[in-house]
Amino acid sequence: MTNTIETNTMPTKTGDRAAVDLSIVDDPDRLVSLDGVHNFRDMGGYTMGDGRTIGRGRLFRADGLYRLTETDLELLDAIGIRTVIDLRSAGEIEQYGTFPFERHPVAFHAMPIIDATWRDADIPEFEETEQGEIDFLTWAYRDMLAVGGDRFAQAIHQLAVPEAAPAVFHCAAGKDRTGVLAALVLGGLGVDHAVIVADYGLTRAGMERMRAWVETNHPEMAERMSETPSFMLAAHPQAMANILDGLVAEHGSVRNYLATIGVGDAILEALGEALTA
Fold this sequence. Notes:
Elements: E1 4-6, E2 19-21, E3 41-42, E4 59-62, H1 70-79, E5 83-86, H2 90-96, E6 107-110, H3 130-159, E7 167-170, H4 177-188, H5 193-201, H6 203-217, H7 219-226, H8 237-251, H9 254-260, H10 265-276
Parallel strand pairs: 4-7, 5-6, 5-7
Antiparallel strand pairs: 1-2, 3-4
Helix pairs in contact: 3-4, 3-8, 4-5, 5-8, 6-7
């Protein structure tokens, strides 16, 4: 059965009455199956605003690449990854390490979006309910855009560099910092917001895969996850819909928002060229 969602005549809004086919989001080939990384996904196959399609194998989003095994690295070599953008904080990188670029050369860029994880920062109180998840993620992503907009811009500039692709960007879980950057990239290229929200929603399964893996292979990480409020581990699609709708309400479109942080038409055109080459 074809998976569709109802969206409004404005292509920049998540609420349009024309049906959007979301079957491309659920393509099982989107997930790159790895041993130590659980949310490594191909962002190809999505239709941009100009009608072109993002190529497969050009851009990926992921969780913590410091956990890659030797077998995983052989697969990434076969994919031909040229650029790795690490969105984690300096403290996370120091504590856990990075993609092993010294052994497997890539253009590696550390571009921390936030200076400290939410577990280590003062945040408002949220209930551990579904609405609490939505409220927390919406607050967190808006805060991330407010404090890290220029850093997201730097990452997009780097992805648009000629010969940067195939590229991957990641954080710890591939959910929050990665999710917002993915939304900005796809939104800036004119991908329908319903597709962006559905793509973000795939992270729920990624979090389940990670939980299963840490229980068996990483007791210390499992303990950290068990001590983390449930709303911090959520990936509720409504939160991403709220973010996109907010950008449209304030700026008219994601592309217009990106212009305010220094990502203009020329960069987005270069990015589109790189991802359709």
